[in-house]
Specification:
single chain; alpha+beta; Aminopeptidase; Alpha-Beta Plaits; ten-stranded mixed β-sheet; eight-stranded mixed β-sheet; 40 strands; disordered C terminus; binds zinc ion
């Protein structure tokens, strides 16, 4: 009887499923509607909900694409009509064929376009405090899964939607946890005091060409490259007191590598959505404001024949409503939030603004974009194919870039080729020597022809950027770029890449897999006095750290027959095994040295590194941590309280203060800084206030006086290079923006390669300058790198280059028994400036380098460790 009843229930459930299946709503799942004041679903709840939704609806598929940096599931939902979902591989194949007109004829394309769907990728919540889209996404998916209006059915039939409900699940969870922790306190609705991406915080949306982070790589490989979408809708939030929502058109400048039809298509879709939001009676809609289309750091798809539609909604305090009176609304590039204009016809009247408003705008914008994607399916697919046709038939600019076989750093060269390939750029390798533009290139050189579907992506990464001189008004100050102005990877990586204008005729084969650096070599010799390897590459320094971690005794040679900085390892028991292992892990050539090495050297021991973490989170701190974690460089993170406590010399040899404003470092938080600056003035909890304070700063100086090394990066250097400083001052202290402006460009400096901090460098080096200081060095100070020209620009934008001439980009200031090393640039900029990593790594090694005379019995004399190098060799002064 019981069994019979069960069977009956089962039958009726199946029958029910066929007619009117119950699909759980977000409200049923979470106990509140997405957008409810002070209520947020966290990542655990969201992923559980999406799995349930996919189980209950045949319009939704759930997939975990991999694990995030902190090990959470990274999720994508595929949403379409059930009959489309069973043929996903076929639709991916159509996209692939349409993307390459070299293999797909116009007739074939026509047939494929008739069958294909508009692929719409929706990416949410990359910036974790911009929390609303993580909630809205549940509503997008639920409505698509359950509604059957003609609009929804048309969307399901004509499009395939790939919904990435958070591009940074770790941050989503972090922000919701933080919000709940402080709910009901004076700190409710404030931002976390730590980076909300484990390594890179807000810069997770600056990683779309360097592909350094796990989340970026998963999205590019498994969503964007797998689908090659026609449209990517990327959902953000901005400050509270401007427009209610922004949509394209973008403001100038536009990267000239973006196809003109694609640009017009973004203009048209943005305007159409703006129109539909207005039709719904939503005020405060801005187009053509604030956001430019210059850097591929934020825009992958626009170099891959896809639209990027950005919306930025005004923020609340996370999920807490805020009140904004009309007269507190502000101005920005392209708008005054209190005045109507062609691109902002209906200002918002002010009042209460809440999470639910943001969710409401986002839902409207999403369905508007999806309807448009469905309605103009054929046009989107046609344009997609035609953009590819123009790309493969390009007839201007260089024919190709050649990356010559001979390079200084084979690992950076491999990284460049692999970066291009990860972005679906085809790279060839020459199997014989060849000539191009009258130049000779050796066998093994790489060729990147620009006439290929994604040639624009290759071109923008390989070429020099010429950022236009845009002013706030004629004759006025420079207008701030939305982000930075350059991305020339060959400069940042220290790799030669040569544009050639004539067609290259060479024997080549396609590079079909990731390129590996040259393998390391180790030649064992039991009779050798020791071993040496050159220090020209980053790998050589990573290998050096690896040896130091194993307790191996290492010298950097400073005199005699070897180049300054050469790494010398005296013979010792068990050494061959260790060297064999590093030659296996790194690209380096370890050679035996037969006779005892004579002359001067620096004995190096493993520095005890502290990395300062401000409670005003610094992305530069995160990038530094990322580099160290990638390369196995040991460090300890320290916070304000650790420095205030003192006793630093007992624990550390070197303290790194990453890029941050001097005020943030010395006085701590209270207000926010950066892109999303005005999410409301919520105070920071007391335990995170105050910064280093006078006490901490005094301890830092004491640390140096007692023999420690402090390394300051970019703006952090200003805490030491003050107007009243004795040896090192900031030469740019009094310059105004109209006279001098470099908001993120690549400049050239000349380097004193005999100085231990510049060991292994070329005599001139491209550096990443971003609102940086530059130093005047007097008295006891040393300059290690300086601007020799009044035109130091290599790529990007500069005003007032003459202000830099003769100033210093790296300065060393002796302080008591120790020293401060000041960087006037970002040596490990966003994990990209490979060519200047060595300055940072050398600075760390310098902290524990002791001058040492290698006599005939050098292999027996113990190095002095921990003694500051007061007599650094031949440092130039200016
Ligand atoms: Zn954002």
């Amino acid at each position: 009887m019981r069994r019979l009843l069960l069977a009956f229930l089962l039958i009726s459930a199946v029958a029910g499923a066929a007619t009117a299946p119950h699909v759980t709503s977000p409200e049923e799942a979470f106990g509140f509607k997405p957008g409810t004041d002070r209520k947020l679903a966290d990542w655990q709840q969201l992923t559980a909900y999406y799995q349930k939704l996919a189980a209950e609806s045949n319009r939704v598929r759930y997939a975990e694409l991999g694990e995030t940096t902190e090990g959470r599931p990274f999720v994508a939902l595929t949403i379409s009509a059930p009959e489309n979902l069973v043929h996903l591989a076929e639709y991916q194949d159509i996209q692939k064929k349409l993307s390459d007109p070299r293999v797909t004829s116009p007739d074939e394309a026509k047939a494929l376009i008739a069958r294909g769907k508009t692929i719409l990728v929706v990416t949410c919540n990359i910036h974790s405090t911009e929390i609303a889209s993580s909630q809205s996404a549940a509503e997008f998916a639920y409505r698509l899964a359950t509604q059957s209006t003609p609009d929804i059915l048309s969307i399901l039939q004509n499009t395939i939607i790939v919904l990435v409900p958070s591009l940074n699940p770790d941050g989503q969870q972090l922000v919701v946890d933080w919000y709940k922790k402080y709910l009901g306190t004076p700190y409710e609705g404030g931002n976390p005091v730590v980076l909300w991406h484990h390594y890179v915080g807000h810069d997770d949306n600056r990683d779309w060409y360097a592909f350094t982070q796990i989340e970026t790589r998963l999205t590019v490989e498994k969503v964007l490259n797998a689908w090659r979408p026609q449209i990517v809708y990327d959902i953000h939030q901005m400050q509270s007191n401007g427009p209610r929502i922004y949509l394209p058109p973008w403001v100038d400048p536009i990267d000239p590598n973006v196809d003109p039809v694609l640009l017009q298509s973004m203009n048209a879709l943005g305007m159409n959505t703006a129109l539909e939001l207005s039709q719904e009676g939503k005020p405060g809609v801005l187009v053509d404001g604030v956001y430019d289309l210059w850097s591929p750091a934020r825009h992958y798809m626009v170099y891959h024949a896809g639209l990027r539609i950005l919306t930025e909604s005004a923020s609340a305090n996370i999920a807490t409503p805020i009140d904004i009176p009309f007269d507190k609304l502000g101005r920005g590039i392209g708008y005054d939030a209190r005045q109507s204009a062609w691109n902002f016809p209906n200002p918002w009247k002010g009042g209460t603004w809440r999470l639910g408003d943001i969710v409401d705008y986002q839902i409207s914008a999403f369905f508007s974009i999806a309807r448009n994607a469905a309605e103009y399916r054929e046009r989107y697919l046609n344009n997609f194919y035609e953009i590819g046709r123009r790309a493969v038939n390009r007839d201007s600019g260089p024919y190709a870039y050649v990356i010559p076989a001979e390079q200084r750093d084979s690992a950076s060269t491999a990284r460049l080729v692999n970066t291009l390939r990860f972005g679906l750029v085809e790279v060839e390798q020459a199997s014989a020597d060849f000539q191009a533009d009258g130049k000779h290139f050796a066998r093994g050189s790489y060729i990147v022809p620009l006439s290929q579907p994604y040639g624009a992506f290759a071109k923008t990464l390989l070429e020099i950027q010429h950022y236009p001189d845009i002013r706030e008004y004629p004759g006025g100050p420079p207008r701030r770029p939305y982000d930075v102005t350059a991305q020339t990877l060959p400069l940042l990586f220290g790799v030669d890449a040569v544009p050639v204008s004539e067609k290259v005729t060479a024997q080549t084969s396609a590079v079909a897999a990731d390129v590996k650096p040259e393998p390391g070599h180790f030649k064992e010799s039991t009779a050798a006095a020791g071993y040496e390897f050159a220090d020209k590459t980053n790998d050589s320094l990573y290998a050096l750290f690896s040896l130091l971690k194993q307790g191996v005794r290492v010298e950097r040679l400073t005199g005699g027959e070897f180049e300054p900085g050469t790494i010398y390892i005296p013979q010792e028991q068990g050494l061959a095994e260790k060297l064999s292992s590093i030659a296996n892990d790194f690209s380096l050539d370890v050679r035996p040295v037969d006779q005892n090495v004579s002359g001067t050297a620096l004995a190096v021991t493993l520095p005890r590194i502290a990395l300062y973490k401000s409670w005003v989170p610094s992305m530069d701190e995160g990038w530094t941590r990322w580099l160290f974690d990638q390369k196995g460089i040991p460090y300890t993170s320290i916070v304000d309280a650790d420095i205030r406590k003192g006793g630093l010399n007992q624990k550390f040899d070197v303290i790194i203060i990453p890029d941050n404003s001097p005020r943030a470092i010395l006085s701590g938080g209270g207000e926010r800084e950066g892109e999303d600056a005005s999410v409301g003035p919520v105070p920071v909890p007391p335990e995170f206030r105050g910064g280093l304070g006078n006490e901490g700063f005094a301890n830092l100086l004491d640390f140096a006086r007692s023999g420690g090394t402090v390394v300051t990066l970019n703006k952090a250097s200003e805490i030491f290079a003050q107007q009243n400083s004795v040896n090192v001052t900031n030469a740019l202290d009094d310059t105004d923006h109209k006279a001098f402006y470099v908001p993120g460009s690549i400049l050239e400096v000349s380097v004193d390669t005999k100085n231990p901090i510049a060991f292994g460098s070329t005599p001139t080096v491209p550096i990443w300058f971003e609102l940086s200081p530059s130093f005047r060095v007097n008295g006891e100070g040393h300059s290690i790198a300086s601007y020799m020209s009044d035109k130091p620009l290599l790529s990007g934008w500069i005003l007032g280059g003459d202000k830099l001439k003769g100033t210093s980009a790296i300065a060393e200031e002796p302080v008591g028994k120790g020293h401060v090393i000041l960087f006037g640039f970002r040596p490990q900029y966003r994990g990209q400036s490979e060519v200047t990593y060595k300055f940072l790594l050398n600075s760390l090694l310098y902290a524990t380098s002791a001058p040492h005379d290698l006599g005939a019995q050098s292999s027996k004399s113990a190095p002095q460790s921990g003694v500051a190098l007061a007599t650094a060799p031949a440092a130039s002064k200016n």
